[in-house]
Amino acid sequence: MRALSATGAFIGVIVALFLALAPAAEATTSPSPSPSSSSQQQFPNTISGFLRNSGQPLSGVKITAKGNGFEGSTTSSSSGAWSISVPTQGSYQVTLDESTLPSGVKLADGQENPRTVTFNQTSNLSTIFAFGAGITVHQVSFFATLANRLVAGLSFGLLLALSAVGLSLIFGTTGLTNFAHGEMVTLGAVIAFSLSANGVPYWLALIAGLLSGAVFGYVQDAFLWKPLRRRGTGLVPMMIVSIGLALAARYVILFFFGGATQQLPGAQTEDIDLGIVSVSPNNLMSLLISAVVIALIGIVLLRTRLGKATRAVADNPALAAASGIDVDRVIRIVWVTGGLLAALGGILWAYYRPGVTFNMGQQILLMIFAGVTLGGLGTVFGALVGSIVVGIFVELTTVFGLTSDLKYVGALVIMILVLLFRPQGILGRRERVG
User: Fold this and answer.
1) Disulfide check for 209: which of 108, 111, 123, 191 has CB 3.0–4.6 Å away?
2) pLDDT (tens digit per residue) in 40-58
3) pLDDT digit string (tens) for 61-83?
4) What is the predicted pLDDT for the residue at 430?
5) Taking the chain, what is the end-to-end CA distance rounded to the nearest angstrom?
């Protein structure tokens, strides 16, 4: 009963944080641009934006996108919205036809036209053209870019840590490297979107998304991993089973959810200027929620009987059982908690990208493993430190010239280097073999 009460209180805290911070994000949300040309062929990826001059929409302005063997154009609608669907992701040259601008309206000085835009982990790419006499578009300084990437990396690292902590708890108590953890990440975001899209209040859809991850973790342990443990199945066969489970769950989600990228409520927001740093409300909300939740997990692990029992099982299951600890119960709670944290990480990841896709958990799984490996396998606080390092490293690579499409390769580089030079990780313990 105490475990159920703690879980309920934990979910309540998360929902309260979302509801407390969500209105600010929704207040700055712009409506999603809709295609202004009905004759344009529809593709799964879109480049879009709004054209406004002194707050007034600009209609009838021609925009052209060209690249990857494709060329398409559209005109802005009465609201100033424009959208061009493109067949594949990649880099495109977007050109605004200045001859179609209303009389007296011109692009701001220094505004790039044409410009090259590149898709990055999303199917909806937005680009903004600034207008106005006397307005000059200045290039952002290197230090401002560095500060912005540091904040983005911290936010990304903390949301990685949510999933990494759950994965680390599972590995610490069972020794299992669970490749289906990415699908628990996906499930939370998919359930939250599906319910909210069908008219369910956002707070209720959020709770359902979190609970779906917890239920998935419970079902996995109760009907798959516990029976395999009782049969004495080795860790390598169990790891292979987890790979099969990941593939099966991923394509079940694809069958029901589809392959398109969908947006959660309030996903499109304008950045908030905080001095030298500009951060979106969603990233700020993600950073705060992740920090609070991870702090709660740390308090539970260090200050409660359940946390001490969890650490005892992770350290030595046989000795913990001999001391009167119900090992199976602790493992079950760990699976539920790990699923809950993964679902929360998936929802925040959907806002960070932004977008919900059937394979979003697969895309982030390598970075989760990199964070866990860097911090130390089975070490909860190591997973936190490792995830923050990975998040910051991944975001900073773009500052120093690496293209955005390759920045996630940095997670793989980190994992390889750690395994080569410090296999136990930052906070892991060196083990003697033999």
Assistant:
1) 191
2) 556 777 888 888 887 788 8
3) 999 999 888 889 999 988 888 88
4) 58
5) 43
What's the chain's average pLDDT?
Answer: 81
Q: Write down the residue that tokens 């903390």 correspond to.
A: 158
Q: Mean per-residue pLDDT for 337-344?
A: 94
User: pLDDT of 193-216, one tens digit each?
Assistant: 999 989 899 889 999 999 999 999
Which of 142, 354, 372 has the alpha carbon at shortest distance from 265? 354
Output the six-digit token pair for 108.
Answer: 């701001």
Neighbours of 285 (CB within 10 A): 23
**φ, ψ (nearest 5 deg) of residue 273:** -85, 120
Amino acid making up residue 150: L
Burial of 112 (0-12, 13-18, 19+ CB in 10 A): exposed
Strand 45-50, strand 124-126: pairing: parallel
